Automatic annotation (TrEMBL), chains A, B:
<dbReference type="InterPro" id="IPR036052">
    <property type="entry name" value="TrpB-like_PALP_sf"/>
</dbReference>
<dbReference type="InterPro" id="IPR004450">
    <property type="entry name" value="Thr_synthase-like"/>
</dbReference>
<keyword id="KW-0456">Lyase</keyword>
<dbReference type="GO" id="GO:0006567">
    <property type="term" value="P:L-threonine catabolic process"/>
</dbReference>
<dbReference type="InterPro" id="IPR050147">
    <property type="entry name" value="Ser/Thr_Dehydratase"/>
</dbReference>
<protein>
    <recommendedName>
        <fullName>Threonine synthase</fullName>
        <ecNumber>4.2.3.1</ecNumber>
    </recommendedName>
</protein>
<dbReference type="Pfam" id="PF00291">
    <property type="entry name" value="PALP"/>
</dbReference>
<keyword id="KW-0663">Pyridoxal phosphate</keyword>
<dbReference type="GO" id="GO:0009088">
    <property type="term" value="P:threonine biosynthetic process"/>
</dbReference>
<dbReference type="GO" id="GO:0004795">
    <property type="term" value="F:threonine synthase activity"/>
</dbReference>
<feature type="domain" description="Tryptophan synthase beta chain-like PALP">
    <location>
        <begin position="85"/>
        <end position="386"/>
    </location>
</feature>
<dbReference type="InterPro" id="IPR001926">
    <property type="entry name" value="TrpB-like_PALP"/>
</dbReference>
<dbReference type="GO" id="GO:0009097">
    <property type="term" value="P:isoleucine biosynthetic process"/>
</dbReference>
<dbReference type="GO" id="GO:0003941">
    <property type="term" value="F:L-serine ammonia-lyase activity"/>
</dbReference>
<dbReference type="GO" id="GO:0004794">
    <property type="term" value="F:threonine deaminase activity"/>
</dbReference>
<feature type="modified residue" description="N6-(pyridoxal phosphate)lysine">
    <location>
        <position position="119"/>
    </location>
</feature>
<comment type="similarity">
    <text>Belongs to the threonine synthase family.</text>
</comment>
Amino acid sequence: MTTTVGAPTTFDLGPAKALSCRECGHQIPLAPEFACAECFGPLEVAYSFGQVRRADIEAGPRSIWRYRGLLPVPSDVDSHPNTQPGLTRLVRADRLAAALGLRSLWVKDDTGNPTHSFKDRVVAVALAAARQLGFKVLACPSTGNLANATAAAAARAGWESVVLIPSSLEKAKILTTAVYDGALIAVDGNYDDVNRLATELAAEHEDWAFVNVNVRPYYAEGSKTLAYEIAEQLGWRLPEQVVVPIASGAQLTKVDKGFRELGELDLVEATPYRVFGAQATGCSPVSAAYKAGHDVVQPVRPDTIARSLAIGAPADGPYVLDVVRRTNGAIEDVTDEEVVEGIRLLARTEGIFTETAGGVTVATAKKLVETGKLDPDAETVLLITGDGLKTLDAIENHIGPRATVPPSAAAVHEALGL
Amino acid sequence: MTTTVGAPTTFDLGPAKALSCRECGHQIPLAPEFACAECFGPLEVAYSFGQVRRADIEAGPRSIWRYRGLLPVPSDVDSHPNTQPGLTRLVRADRLAAALGLRSLWVKDDTGNPTHSFKDRVVAVALAAARQLGFKVLACPSTGNLANATAAAAARAGWESVVLIPSSLEKAKILTTAVYDGALIAVDGNYDDVNRLATELAAEHEDWAFVNVNVRPYYAEGSKTLAYEIAEQLGWRLPEQVVVPIASGAQLTKVDKGFRELGELDLVEATPYRVFGAQATGCSPVSAAYKAGHDVVQPVRPDTIARSLAIGAPADGPYVLDVVRRTNGAIEDVTDEEVVEGIRLLARTEGIFTETAGGVTVATAKKLVETGKLDPDAETVLLITGDGLKTLDAIENHIGPRATVPPSAAAVHEALGL
């Protein structure tokens, strides 16, 4: 981390100073690149941090931009219209803790973001970097949360957007993206087809920033802000355990990166922490690799209601395994039935309604406690990364009114057993 | 305002010192009452504020509880589990301003609340007061946002809840309340039937707090926090113009009350401000009364897609007329087509997706500018009180993908006219 390269760059991306290959370590100047020219490995942002002080962060904006000194964005990032995501609630979850058998539990509730998922964080960083890198159009392939976040961020900034979705997407998800009035294109094909098309278009259009393709190194850094916020909201210290859902795996690795940076910069004491990963059994390639003791992840064909986590060939899978093993964490997976029960448990105990990905996190935490992998006495944080309003279909056959009655007090009393 | 009564009270509700009749001025000690025993007028909370300083507020919680010294809640209110609503974004809306022809415009975006509407504010205050007043069950009749907020707040606090809804309610709205696992009771009848049933049950059950019925005086005070936040977020000053949607009308009157209190307490300079009201034409009894120059509001039968505003006999209608006339504001109403265009305009220009009530506010602001009632050179705030994810049905026949194409770059180019 924080390696400086000597070559001057022409792009002002704050403390970001180079792109570094995560496989071979080769460094290049900051550029709109995402793959290493030497080995085709994924590129990652390398920094040269100046002095970053708690007081400066605390005096900053009430959004992820309070951490701009730790992100690949210019110092005036917040002077451009943006969705100002982040600084979502860290909720003390005593009732959920009691239900799970944990002593001290927090929920990082990212449903409070502008489009109600953590994707607002990564898209905001991608947009800020894309502006500096000379892009003019914000784009993505997506099946849901990312489409919402990209279209909204572009609208707010006054940018054109191109969002590619499978034409089979549910109407509700189409509406929540179409409303921002960018170029929403439905593609007759599955998500793999849409993804390939995005890569092709990114190569053809120099000024189109596909947030999760050609500006992915910058985009992914946005997830570090979850770690920064957790530490600041705990009073500038690290939690002992954190449970993170795994889709591509980028979020989990960036939460780890964020915690490490805070320690290295003396913003927190570098106390030990354990990182746990959560997957749905119907798409659990990283969990399977972890349990088998493998270093590589075998792709799978997803089949789960947790569609926002349904990435069968997770790009960051090997790096997730590294983080989890290095920090003495674990990875577990849960059935779709357990996902629904996880959603309901969080709602019932804490009044927080999460999408299926959050159900995966809660249900996995439960399983990790039951199998003795999560220490019940260690302070734990669960990442709840998206909103239940986006995945109503997952619960619609499981819940409903307790009773339907005629309009009389007697009927209500009878229904309630009074 | 801020009248003290001499009688000691047994309830610790912070600066709240009495209930005062809004019609005859008769005062009673703090109690679980909502109607004046003398004249049946509505009761309102009266305060005796101590010294309230900006610095103390700024050092307080990142929620409405930073204003606990101005609300009918005990000083330790935040030590009890609650949803911690409020401190939502005040968004500088330059692109919407340009579209509307306003020089300086802000959007108060209450979609960021825990259950994504301003109802989290009023329910949180109702729950805090209800706890002090000895209630044990949180309840409400509702058709949407209030049901969500009540069920979530009760779950978080570990309280029982009883939520009454018309059995004809859309499935999505049933799910988003049922997930919190309180006693959700579907009633065969319309909203008026449900409301009457709530009043009957409130009379029978001494320990059931129907937030919008028998603890309404406390509940309604929660809307003052919108005014406090706007002023604080503007750097401790009042805006010159504010546009507020009207359902019962309580929110509009409480925004005015909040602004006045801030001036009287020297927390802001008491500069003049104008309050504007927004209704959907399909339920516009207050707008009609305003335009006709009447002091009373004739009830109507609602017929509008803006269902969260569809109160045909608004309890605070006359008080709304008072506020609007006193502050030299105005009231206007807009058609359902304009509501949809208002939703789309806000999404397109600012990346904020609001429910129909927000569409009413935006469309009304547009009409008020066009008719010369809103001063285009005066700083203006629009209240966006709920989330578009809750009223997808309102836009589903109006928007969709720009094109559906085969998975090829050429097809995308053709669809985009490139």
